[in-house]
Amino acid sequence: MSVSVDLVNALKRSLRAQGMTYRELAQRMRLSEAAVKRMFSRRAMSLLRLEQICEVLGLGLAELGAEAGRGREPMARLEQAQEQALVDDPALMLAMFLSINRWRQDDVMAHFAFTLPQWTGLLARLDRLGMIELQPGNRVRPLTARNFRWLPDGPMERHFRTTLLSDYFADPFDGEHDRLLLLSGSLSPDGVAQMQQRLDDLAREFDGLLARDASLPAEQRVGVSLVLAQKPWLLRLFEPYRRERG
C-alpha cells in the first residue's frame, strides 16, 4: 500500500516534534530499524502499520490527516509571550488545557462555570496567540505538539516551581488513582542517561493514552497529572552532615 507524501511528511514532523528517532520507533513497534526506514522512504505501509505508528506517537488517524493538510510543524515549545499569557490568566490556562485534551464544548459548559461568550472569548484569545486554530462552531485544532515542553526557566516553569508545586504535593497521595514514589541512589553516567530515556518513553506513553481516550465523554475520564523529574540531589536535612570538599 502506498501512503501519500503529505501523510508521510506529517508522520515525520510528529516524530521530530516528539524527539523520537526511527530506531526508537522501531523498538516500540518491535521491528528492525531498517524496516521502519524502508517504510518511510518508500511510503509503503499498510493501514495496520499506519495505525501502529499513530498509536506510538499518540495520534489519531483524523488528527494525522488534519496535520497532513495543514502542512506545518507543530510547536514543540511555546514562546515566552505565550507562556506569560497563560501564567497571567488562569482561565486562559484552563482553556488551553481543555483544548489540548480535546474537551467538547458541551462538556466544558457542563463542568465549568463559563458562559458561552466567555468560553468563545478565551478560545479567540488562544487563536490570536497562535496556540490553537479556532474553527466554526468553536471546534479547536491545537497547534502545539501533544507533549510540548516548557521553556527552561521560562514563565511556566517558574510558575510551577513557585506556585503549583506546593499545591501538587499539599494533599496525601492516598486516593484510588494516586501513587507517589521517591527513589534515590547512585548511578553511573550511563545509568543516568538510561533513566532519562525511560522518562522520555514514559512521557510518550502517557501522551499515547491521552490520544486514545480523548474521544471519551468527560464523565469517563479522570484528570491525571504526572511530575517526572531527575537531578543530582540530596535532602536538605542531610546538608549539615556533608563534609566540605577541598
Report what the structure shows.
It holds the Pfam family HTH_26. This is Helix-turn-helix transcriptional regulator. Residues 11-64 form the HTH cro/C1-type domain. It comes from Luteimonas rhizosphaericola. The longest helix is centred in the last third of the chain and has 25 residues, at 189-213. The chain has 246 residues and is mostly helical. It has helices at residues 5-17, 22-29, 33-42, 47-57, 61-70, 80-88, 90-100, 105-111, 116-128, 155-168, 189-213; strands spanning 75-77, 132-135, 139-142, 144-149.
What are the defining features of this structure?
mainly alpha; Lambda_DNA-bd_dom_sf; 246 residues; 4 strands; Cro/C1-type_HTH; two-stranded antiparallel sheet; 434 Repressor (Amino-terminal Domain); Helix-turn-helix transcriptional regulator
Give the secondary structure arrangement, pairings included:
Elements: H1 5-17, H2 22-29, H3 33-42, H4 47-57, H5 61-70, E1 75-77, H6 80-88, H7 90-100, H8 105-111, H9 116-128, E2 132-135, E3 139-142, E4 144-149, H10 155-168, H11 189-213
Parallel strand pairs: 1-4
Antiparallel strand pairs: 2-3
